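Supplementary Methods. Inverse-folding protocol.

Structures were first reduced to a discrete structure-token string of length 334. This string, shown here, constituted the complete conditioning input.
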């Protein structure tokens, strides 16, 4: 079969067939009397093999090596191509994300584009100092898309940089909240913790609602962080979790402070005191837990707390009894 007919049947140009010949990929097995290339059925089958491998993304050099290697293993080739394709797709997605973020920032001119690019690079820098400066600059100088700030905040391991990023998010408006809410459902515990910490620093009603929902989160760290934030905002829903934190000695000092803040509202003081007394009624509590609950009662005003302290001043545990008596003495002196 002559080159023109082969080109028509195989769907490639005669020029490409000549190129294959020059590379040694497909050399026609015969020549006509006039010296024209003449391809056999085996040559044509090799051409189809070449085109099939090229469609998978192989270069002509790689195609030649694959066809001429007697030890060639298709499975290894496919695995390698999958790896390369994934790397290429990841790189392209990263570029697409960067371009979208630059577009979302709305730079007015080329200088603005360069500033946004520099900040995005800063947020992804290996240097903690550069990441921190980028976070601060995103509020003070060039606005960075909130999506980029959220991604940085949820992945930031350095506590100082994380604080700067949370501050930046708190000043970015409420656009970050839906993205942070997604972070609360992350399979990664650190991401869930960073998400609730970031939400806790945003002073919006929607943020408060998210924190209230977080009290039912399966992650106990998320629940406790949400409770502390809600206690500072005067939300009574946090009381049970805060009391549990005191019992379990988990940020118990902060939990007691939050309860004290909540108890400044008279309707909540008795509720909190009742909750603390209810825990003390459990005979299985360790003396150290009873002492922490007694200390927490010290900052709760009202008759319910005073009666509980009076009872505790006769507690069988000496440390509990002395603490309760001391607190009562101070309360009586006021």
């Amino acid at each position: 079969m002559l080159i023109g007919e082969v080109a028509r049947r195989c769907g490639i140009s005669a020029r490409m067939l000549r190129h294959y010949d020059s590379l040694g990929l497909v050399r026609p097995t015969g020549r006509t009397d006039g010296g024209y290339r003449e391809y056999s059925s085996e040559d044509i089958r090799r051409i189809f093999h070449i085109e099939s491998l090229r469609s998978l993304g192989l270069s002509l050099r790689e195609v030649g090596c694959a066809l001429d290697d007697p030890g060639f293993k298709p499975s290894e080739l496919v695995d390698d191509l999958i790896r390369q394709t994934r790397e290429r797709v990841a790189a392209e997605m990263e570029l697409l994300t960067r371009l979208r973020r630059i577009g979302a920032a709305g730079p007015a001119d080329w200088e603005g584009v360069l500033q946004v690019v520099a900040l995005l690079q800063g947020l992804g820098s290996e240097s903690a100092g550069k990441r921190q400066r980028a976070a601060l600059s995103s509020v003070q100088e060039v606005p960075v898309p909130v999506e980029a700030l959220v991604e940085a905040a949820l992945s930031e391991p350095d506590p100082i940089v994380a604080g700067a990023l949370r501050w930046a998010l708190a000043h970015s408006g409420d656009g970050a909240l839906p993205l942070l809410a997604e972070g609360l459902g992350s399979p990664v515990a650190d991401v869930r913790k960073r998400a609730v910490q970031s939400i806790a620093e945003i002073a919006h009603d929607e943020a408060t609602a998210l924190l209230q929902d977080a009290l039912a989160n399966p992650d106990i760290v998320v629940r406790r962080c949400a409770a502390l934030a809600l206690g500072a905002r005067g939300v009574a829903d946090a009381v049970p979790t805060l009391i549990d934190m005191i019992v379990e000695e988990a940020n118990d000092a902060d939990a007691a402070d939050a309860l004290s803040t909540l108890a400044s509202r008279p309707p909540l003081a008795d509720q909190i005191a009742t909750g603390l007394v209810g825990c003390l009624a459990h005979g299985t509590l360790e003396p150290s837990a009873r002492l922490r609950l007694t200390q927490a009662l010290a900052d709760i005003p009202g008759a319910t707390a005073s009666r509980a302290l009076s009872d505790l001043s006769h507690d069988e545990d000496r440390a509990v009894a002395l603490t309760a008596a001391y607190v009562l003495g101070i309360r009586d002196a006021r």
